[in-house]
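Chapter review: from sequence to fold.
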Amino acid sequence: MTRTALSEFFTFVQKNVLLELNILSRCLPIYKSSFLSISFTVFFAPLGLLGQEDRRAAALDLWAPKTLEEKQEISETSPDEAPYNWFDQIVGVEQLGIHEGEVYVEKHRVKGKTSKFLPSPDFSGGSVHYNSQTYFNINLKYDAYDDELLLLVENNLGGNPLKLSKAKVEHFEIQGHQFKHIKDLKDGVPDGFYEIVLDGDFFDLLIKHSKLPKQQLEGSSVFYTFEDLDKLCLLQLNGNYELLDDLTDLENLFPKYKEALKAHHANQKGKSEFYRQLQASLKYLELWSASDDLKGGQQ
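The token string follows.
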């Protein structure tokens, strides 16, 4: 189906089928009956197969004719995201490519305030680039113990969280925390989801969260608490990833600034978590970028 034909089809559906379903929804308390579910499936099932470009074209073609007042009324997010959120809402999440995966079954009954989830134990608004498509305004949480990304499914679609296929997740964001799926690392460094804690002009600093479960027995019940383990720190530099175990690793990567870094490290060592010390050192290094070629500092 061509882009023009696809757009014309969706325009027809929007003006006719959706209008009829909207009328039915207002008149009948059973508007989510199996009949209407079948109707939605017949008209919208092909959308789950749309590629990123087709989905973008269909969303923008239908969004463009709307008046500014209509767009402002619909939009609750940034202008760039609004057409996709609106389009996905019309289509229904059950028809989108992200609505797939294994039903998540919780294996740890937690007691206390500790959690294996980030950034919080609850689902939070975020976005994910999944199977070459970006989905906005969805509810996610990250399981740092099993290194899995979970999607909250609406109650009328079952309500059970889905564990998204890890291989299809390229990057995601939850409450402003940016994560990237890194693969094929060397020297036994684990693949998985790494949080970007510094997005610099010349390099990025990423950390791997890890959790250690501890059992607690209370009568016949088993509870778990989760302890934060030391974070793996990766420096993305010139297209490569370097594992940083100590501040001296950073000094050795930039021999031109080694003495300056040593002096800087002497003032901050032991005052905060290791990755925060690295953050401060890398920001210090970037100050040189205004008057020096930072990449040349490796020489």
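Two observations follow directly from the output. The chain has eight helices and 14 strands. The longest helix spans residues 3-27.
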